[in-house]
Specification:
Layout: E1 2-6, H1 12-22, E2 26-31, H2 34-43, E3 49-53, H3 59-69, E4 74-77, H4 94-122, E5 125-132, H5 143-162, E6 168-176, H6 187-200, E7 208-209, H7 211-219
Parallel strand pairs: 1-2, 1-4, 2-3, 4-5, 5-6, 6-7
Helix pairs in contact: 1-6, 3-4, 4-5
Length: 221
């Protein structure tokens, strides 16, 4: 069994790799930095892991990495937050919106198109996506990211509907809490949620945290 983790980093990406690796999966990590990838693989210890450098916003780069990885049982797309700059809704420009859309949506589309045909051919597979609460609830300070991740959510849930009955399960995890230890959205909690979505296959979306907590944190002095 093999899982590709797109947008792998030292938080959620590493935790997902550990969780799936614990169950015997080979994990293929994808991100821009070769040095970061090497460090992540070293931290995985006995987990079978490979590293593949690619720019999620570059279609050919990401396609090449996924071709190198080959067929996978699970795709975890964790690149929705890879923006160069966060802009509030009143400051959103065409460029800042495109920046967020490239990583959150177009990178996901590229990844899905690379792995989905083989999943459909064998009649099994899982597509998992991580995003933020602005995918579900508009938050003005997350202007460009909110535009993008709401598009990612629409894409994920549309995939879930279109793929029903074909053996490919789709799950989306919007995060509505700090990604820190002991949080409802700690890296380990996100990883466990992805694992449950993959194994239970009864839900298409699980929100970690709640909007009230986010709003309270924003308004705190």
């Amino acid at each position: 069994m093999k899982a590709a983790i797109i947008g792998a980093g030292p938080g959620i990406g590493l935790a997902v790799a550990r969780r799936f690796g614990k169950e015997g999966f080979e994990v293929s990590l994808v991100s821009r930095s070769r040095d970061r990838l090497a460090a992540l693989v070293a931290q995985l210890g006995d987990v079978r892991a490979t590293a593949h450098a690619a720019d999620l916003t570059d279609e050919r780069s990401l396609e090449a990495a996924l071709a190198e990885i080959g067929p996978v049982d699970v795709l975890v797309y964790n690149g929705a937050g890879a923006v160069r700059a966060l802009t509030s809704v009143l400051e959103v420009t065409r460029e800042s919106a495109q920046d967020a859309f490239d990583s959150a949506v177009l990178g996901a589309v590229t990844a899905v198109r690379a792995v989905l045909p083989a999943m459909l051919e064998r009649g099994s597979g899982t597509l998992l996506f991580t995003s933020g609460i602005s995918a579900v609830h508009p938050l003005p300070f997350l202007g460009n990211v909110g535009i993008a991740v709401s598009g990612l959510r629409n894409y994920a849930l549309s995939l879930a509907e279109a793929l029903a009955g074909q053996g490919v399960h789709v799950g989306h995890v919007p995060i509505s809490a700090a990604v820190v230890p002991d949080s409802p959205a700690s890296p380990e909690a996100v990883a466990e949620t992805h694992w449950r979505l993959h194994t239970a296959r009864d839900l298409h979306e699980v929100v970690l945290g709640d909007l009230a907590t986010v709003k309270a944190a924003i308004s705190a002095p």
